[in-house]
């Protein structure tokens, strides 16, 4: 089950952080169709978040079509969003290798993320 | 006007220490942050709400009744936790059971377990975090409908903070408990509180639900010569830096002219209200 990490000093609203973490987990396959999200109470207790904030994030995800509530049993990742064709494991392994190289070359995590964002942006604009 | 979903009404409360005509209401199930600079009167308001202090003027209603009649429904944790250092944790809970008609022993014990508090430990030997935890267990063991917390997180390490807020938020999820907590750390409020009350100069400067309040304000920035575009908007706080200004305004429409504007972050909104004096016309505001 997904474990939320909340950074209260990031300037990003907490519900937006929850939304982004679910989106990311679905995109990378860490959350698969049919997986249950933790209940608002579980997140409230573990992460110290207002349960209404969690519910608001789940509503946003539902409107975006990423999750669906099922009466009495919780909130689930919707089917049909996975990308089975993509070789996620292979790509992940290569990226992990690349990360290792970047660290060995002396880059800090922040440098690495900046580099990835930069390359990503120039690709998106190409 | 009284509404049945009102948990708390503070009506025109005045006291020494500069608290003047302080009024706000809290609806059932809200988690409210009470903010103000040092000496703004946060503790006085909280003590009046908890029935520990009788204000010189005004009154406090708990679920529509005078606070004296609602004491059993209130859980209060002050800055100095009112605990007896000679007692053990178990003895402290027994005292809690004797003093509170609505005491829920099983609940209190389950909360102790989460915090890793040993029943045989003496209160005097506990760390600050453990003592705050025990005070919160006492307050939650009462099964309160309204929890009043005076800077509950002060002096706690990040792990203890998350644990304590976690216990609190679980209670909100389970029972819809109404919470009023003071703080002066804006980052503690994000994602925890859904309403905010800002005190300044002994009065309430802002009492609002957080998300709509963010929607209803804008941060505007631009050259000082274009200050005129703010004329039709309520200016909460204005700061000048050379030829440039930054202002928090009550506005939703785009502002005209070469002025940029954006929806404030919670930080920007609260800091502006904390810094601001009583809202004044622009020409009376002195540059920072």
UniProtKB/TrEMBL annotation, chain A:
The keyword Lyase does not apply. The keyword Nucleotide-binding does not apply. InterPro entries: Tscrpt_reg_HTH_GntR, WH-like_DNA-bd_sf, WH_DNA-bd_sf. Coiled coil: none annotated. Keywords: DNA-binding, Transcription, Transcription regulation. Residues 12-80 form the HTH gntR-type domain. CDD domains: WHTH_GntR. This is GntR family transcriptional regulator.
TrEMBL record, chain B:
Residues 1-226 form the ABC transporter domain. PROSITE patterns: ABC_TRANSPORTER_1, ABC_TRANSPORTER_2. It comes from the Bacteria. Pfam families: ABC_tran (PF00005). Keywords: ATP-binding, Nucleotide-binding, Transport. One of its GO terms (molecular function) is ATP binding. This is ABC transporter ATP-binding protein. It comes from Paractinoplanes lichenicola.
């Amino acid at each position: 089950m997904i474990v939320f990490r909340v950074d209260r000093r990031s300037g990003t609203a907490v519900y937006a952080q929850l939304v982004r973490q679910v989106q990311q987990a679905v995109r990378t396959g860490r959350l698969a169709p049919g997986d249950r999200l933790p209940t608002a109470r579980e997140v409230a207790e573990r992460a110290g978040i207002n349960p209404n904030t969690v519910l608001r994030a789940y509503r946003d995800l539902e409107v975006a079509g990423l999750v669906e509530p099922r009466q009495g049993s919780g909130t689930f990742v919707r089917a049909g969003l996975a990308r089975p064709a993509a070789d996620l494991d292979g790509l992940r392994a290569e990226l992990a290798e690349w990360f290792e190289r970047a660290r060995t070359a002396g880059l800090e995590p922040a440098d690495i993320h900046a580099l990835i964002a930069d390359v990503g942006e120039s690709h998106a604009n190409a | 006007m009284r509404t049945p979903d009102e948990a708390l009404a503070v009506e025109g409360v005045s006291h020494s220490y500069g608290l003047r005509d302080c009024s706000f209401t809290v609806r059932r199930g809200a988690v409210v942050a009470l903010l103000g600079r040092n000496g703004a009167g946060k503790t006085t308001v909280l003590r009046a709400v908890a029935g520990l202090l009788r204000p010189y003027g005004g009154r406090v209603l708990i679920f529509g009744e005078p606070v004296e009649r609602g004491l059993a429904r209130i859980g209060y944790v002050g800055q100095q936790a009112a605990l007896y250092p000679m007692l053990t944790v178990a003895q402290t809970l027994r005292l809690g059971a004797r003093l509170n008609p609505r005491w829920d022993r099983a609940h209190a014990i389950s909360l102790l377990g989460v915090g890793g508090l040993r029943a045989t430990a003496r209160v005097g030997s506990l760390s600050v975090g453990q003592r705050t935890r025990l005070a919160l267990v006492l307050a939650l063991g009462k099964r309160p409908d309204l929890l009043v917390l005076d800077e509950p997180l002060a002096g706690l390490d990040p792990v203890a903070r998350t644990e304590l807020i976690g216990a609190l938020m679980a209670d909100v999820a389970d029972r819809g408990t109404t919470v009023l907590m003071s703080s002066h750390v804006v980052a503690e409020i994000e994602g925890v509180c859904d309403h905010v009350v800002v005190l300044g100069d002994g009065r309430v400067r802002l009492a609002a639900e957080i998300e709509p309040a963010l929607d209803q304000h804008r941060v505007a920035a631009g050259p000082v010569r274009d200050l005129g575009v703010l004329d039709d908007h309520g200016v909460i706080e204005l700061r000048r830096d050379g030829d440039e200004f930054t202002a928090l305004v009550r506005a939703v429409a785009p502002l005209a002219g070469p002025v940029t504007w954006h929806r404030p972050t919670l930080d920007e909104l609260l800091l502006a209200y904390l810094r601001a004096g009583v809202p004044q016309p622009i020409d009376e505001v002195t540059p920072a």
